[in-house]
Write a structure and sequence with these properties.
Order of helices and strands: EHHEEEHEHEE
Largest sheet: 7 strands, mixed
CATH class of the domain at 3-118: Alpha Beta
CATH architecture of the domain at 3-118: 3-Layer(aba) Sandwich
CATH topology of the domain at 3-118: Aminopeptidase
Radius of gyration: 15 Å
Number of strands: 7
Helix content: 25-40%
Shape: globular
Strand content: 25-35%
CATH superfamily of the domain at 3-118: Gcn5-related N-acetyltransferase (GNAT)
C-alpha cells in the first residue's frame, strides 16, 4: 500500500478525532467512552510540542492513521522517555501504516535523545499488544483491574521499547 508520512498540523485534527472516535465507539483501544472533538487534539498537540507527531495519508489523501510521542513526565529525570499514541484508520490496519509511523517516530525520538518509548494498552486490546510486541516492545508491567469501560473491567498493560539509536 502506498502512503506518505507528514508532520501533523491543525488542519488534521478533525480527521484524527474521527479515527480516534471510531475506537471510542467500537473497541477498548481508547479508555474514554465519549467521543472527542478536534479541540481535544489541539490540547494534546500543545502538550506534545517539540515531539514528533505524524499523519499517514494515502495516494487519495485519506488519512490512514496518526501517531505521536509526548513527554512521559515533566520531571527532568525522565527527559529520555516518551509515551506513544498511535491510531490507524480501521480500513488500513495490517497494511504497514502503524509500523511506518512507529519507525519514523523512533527516528525522531533518537534525534531528541530519547532512548525509551512507553505504551499503555488496555488488556482487552490484544491486537495492539501483538503489534507492539512485533515492533520490539516488551511487557514491563501490568496494572490489574484499574480500567472500566462500558461496565467491563480491564488491566493496563505497560509496554516499553529501548531504542538502539546511532551514536
Amino acid at each position: 500500500m502506498h502512503f506518505r508520512l507528514q508532520a501533523s498540523e491543525p488542519a488534521d485534527y478533525e480527521e484524527m478525532a474521527g479515527i480516534f472516535n471510531y475506537y471510542v465507539e467500537h473497541t477498548f483501544a481508547t479508555y474514554t467512552e465519549t467521543q472527542v472533538t478536534p479541540d481535544r487534539f489541539e490540547g494534546l498537540m500543545s502538550f506534545c510540542q517539540g515531539y514528533p507527531a505524524l499523519t499517514a495519508r494515502t495516494g487519495q489523501e485519506a488519512m490512514a492513521g496518526f501517531g505521536l510521542l509526548r513527554p512521559y513526565s515533566p520531571i527532568q529525570a525522565f527527559d529520555r522517555t516518551a509515551e506513544l499514541t498511535c491510531f490507524i484508520h480501521p480500513d488500513y490496519t495490517g497494511k504497514g501504516v502503524g509500523t511506518a509511523i512507529l519507525a519514523e517516530l523512533e527516528s525522531g525520538a533518537c534525534g531528541m535523545g530519547i532512548s525509551s518509548i512507553l505504551a499503555t494498552i488496555s488488556s482487552l486490546n490484544e491486537g495492539s499488544i501483538a503489534f507492539h510486541r512485533a515492533c520490539g516492545f516488551s511487557e514491563c508491567g501490568r496494572l490489574p483491574n484499574v480500567g472500566l469501560k462500558r461496565s467491563v473491567p480491564f488491566d493496563i498493560v505497560l509496554m516499553q521499547k529501548q531504542l538502539q539509536c546511532p551514536s
